[in-house]
Design a protein that fits this description.
Number of helices: 5
Strand order of the largest sheet: 6-5-4-3-2-1-14
Shape: globular
Distance between the termini: 5 Å
Radius of gyration: 18 Å
Structural class: alpha/beta
Order of helices and strands: EEEHEHEHEEEEEEHEHEE
């Protein structure tokens, strides 16, 4: 299973428009963070998690092949604002999009022209599926189990992935969590035996009402016990990528746009 980090930034992206801080002015490409999104791929299956407003520039460097499903974490613009740009992939057929009831309603409101009775030619052909936490989804050789984390007071979806061709165990090898502030104890079972954890870490200080800080993410990673943890959804306040990684404990690192890992 291959994971391609298309974007690792927050809702504003990095650089932030008009900001003159050292991170926003950095020439290190790892300090350029578009809005959060990843591809999860095997030889037979390709899934996209979230489709934010930077999707077009994120996907252009990637091979052009069918997307078997788009998994939405929640109905905020930085995670759904690029849905219109999936149009080229409709040549492979309708695009199956999976979202919980809240995100499904958000998409209907954001893209009403895609779901109208009489659609004008060229709109994205979206087949919208409502999903529920803990009910497994099968995409070729990938099993995906959605579970719930809390984005402040908003319940959103996180996802656990198992490749049946490589990991016949029902336990996960990879989990993706973004925009989490807290998680209910009952949801921790869906992180059992995760080998690779991706989780949000906004910055080091100045607490946020709906996002974890770096220390929160490190504590959570240790609780999960994954072999490797990659931090995402980071803003410019976190600091320079190279310097941040020097501060990280063993097994925990800052992801960056364009990073590719094998699970």
């Amino acid at each position: 299973m291959k994971v391609v980090f298309l974007g690792t930034g927050t809702s504003c992206g990095v650089p932030v428009i008009g900001c003159q801080c050292e991170v926003c002015q950095s020439t290190d490409p790892r300090d350029k963070r578009t809005r959060c999104s990843v591809l999860v791929e095997t030889d037979d299956t390709r899934l996209l998690i979230d489709c934010g407003p930077d999707f077009r520039q994120q996907i252009l460097p990637q091979p052009f092949r069918k997307i078997d499903g788009i998994l939405i974490t929640h109905a905020h613009y930085d995670h759904m604002g690029g849905m219109d740009d999936i149009r080229p992939y409709c040549q492979f057929g309708e695009i199956n999009v999976y979202a919980d009831s809240i995100a499904r309603q958000g998409m209907l409101e954001m893209l009403p022209y895609c779901f109208a009775e009489h659609r004008y030619p060229g709109v994205p052909a979206i087949q919208l599926h409502e999903i529920r936490p803990h009910e497994p989804l099968m995409f070729g050789d990938l099993e995906v189990v959605p579970f719930t984390v809390m984005h402040g007071k908003l319940p959103i979806l996180a996802y656990r992935f198992t490749s049946n061709t490589q990991h016949p165990s029902p336990n996960a090898s990879f989990a993706y969590i973004t925009d989490m502030k807290t998680i209910n104890e009952s949801e921790m079972q869906y992180l059992k035996d995760v080998k690779v954890l991706v989780v949000n870490a906004l910055r080091f200080d100045k607490p946020h009402h709906s996002h974890q800080l770096v220390d929160d993410a490190i504590a959570f990673a240790r609780r999960v016990g994954a072999e490797r943890t990659l931090l995402i959804h980071s803003c410019h306040d976190i600091g320079l990528h190279e310097e941040v990684n020097k501060k990280m404990p063993a097994g925990i690192e800052l992801a960056y746009d364009g990073m590719v890992i094998e699970v």
